[in-house]
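Journal club prep — side note

Before the paper discussion, L.F. wants everyone to see what a predicted structure for a comparable chain looks like in token form. Sequence:
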Amino acid sequence: MMGGGARAAYQAGVLAGIARIAARHGLGHCPLPFGIVAGTSAGAINGAGLAVGAADFQAAADSLAALWHGIHADDVYRTDVLRVGLSGARWLSSLAFGWVTRTSPRALFDNAPLGSFLTELFEPERVQASLDAGVLQAFAVTALSYSTGRHVTFYQSHRRIHPWQRSQRLAVEAQIGVDHLLASSSIPFLFPSMPLEIEGHHEWFGDGTMRQMSPLSPAIHLGASRILAIGAASRQRPGWFDTVPSGGYPSLAQVGGQALASIFLDGLQADIERLMHINRLLARMPEIAGDAEGWRPVEVMTIAPSEPIEAIAAWHLHRLPRTVRAFLAPLGGTEARGAAFASYLLFEPAFTQALLALGERDAEAQADEIAAFLYGVVPETTSPARAGTPDVVAT
């Protein structure tokens, strides 16, 4: 599961929909149908919710849906006049008088409430209990080190997995805690980075979707041969921007929305296309599949929003706290063309509930395919080729 700030409510909706599909087949309160859970940014927080409740998929999905159903912006970042005003003043003074200021602002918003929120909800010991019980094979969270530029995947596993290393990518075995979730979900510029220990010292980490060119890689390294990828990029997203009046020169929020889209939304689809290309090559050269280099085909199923999340956000911009609207207005973040940027901060029930409902509808629309992919339940009108016990990953 990838990131996207408040957009990640969609993922919880998809999971709730999958749990309902499982319940129809008498499998709702069974362990997760995913042996490996890999998440980045807000997707890491959703992944943590699955990992702690791995023994009962229905209960875990219900808990995640309830969390997103009632969430408010002040559960995630400070929205009071004093805090937002001070943050804005620091940024303005830094830009105008940076040469005389001694300290620079760390982020636009203070996400200390999210830390407290996660501390109450997330129990690292329960992840280890899920691994020890064998209802979960591995849990992974990815973050970017601002200190070194390395993309680091922190993971826990049921069995010993040797850490991997690629160019600017590194895996580290660690007990995942709240700090890892905060680091992975620290949207650049919006939320502050977090210090994490790695190789005996501390480095500063931010949102794991930055520079994540291979988001499927952690799941594959952890042993996945089948992947369920839940994204937050609409299949219709390119058309959305064509429907918004340009209004002349693009606003800062409009530019920022495109920049965040390139960070959060584009990498997953590109990696899936790359994986499909490798699968086709392996099909033509079966002699290299499974060799010492570790080449193997990996099956992927994707679930993505059927409606533009930006359009949904545009209808709910007025739900943002008044202080946040005042902060974003000069940037164009309260206009329709700035809705893409504002959507990452729209942690308000009306918006997240709309995304939950969309996720459930999209899961239901693929109910037969999901049942076959996850549980080997094949409709009578389809071929039984998918029957059997799947090895599936939520990523």
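L.F.'s comment for the group: The chain is about 45% helix and 15% strand. Keep this in mind when we get to the figures.
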